[in-house]
Backbone:
């Protein structure tokens, strides 16, 4: 499966459902999909593979207040390791 983005509203939140393999080269599409949309939730339920650029993007997004919903354990652990490196 390739990378897919779906947007839906939940009241004042914009939920961005991500699926498939996300790579650094997809971050431009993701940025365009969420740019200027207000309160964002990234739903990672169907994400199967990421690279380090994506993990750092997710870490930074979460640090900026974006909720990561249904974050797979392997991504959560990688984000946490990246935070440790930054300290």
Residues:
């Amino acid at each position: 499966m390739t990378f897919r983005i779906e947007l839906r509203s939940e009241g004042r939140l914009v939920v961005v459902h991500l699926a498939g393999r996300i790579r650094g080269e997809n971050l431009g599409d993701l940025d365009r999909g969420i740019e200027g949309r207000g309160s964002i939730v990234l739903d990672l339920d169907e994400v199967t593979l990421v690279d380090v650029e994506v993990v750092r993007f997710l870490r930074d997004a979460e640090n900026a207040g974006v909720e990561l919903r249904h974050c797979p354990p392997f991504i959560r652990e990688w984000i946490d390791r990246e935070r440790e490196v930054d300290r």
DSSP finds three helices and four strands in the chain.
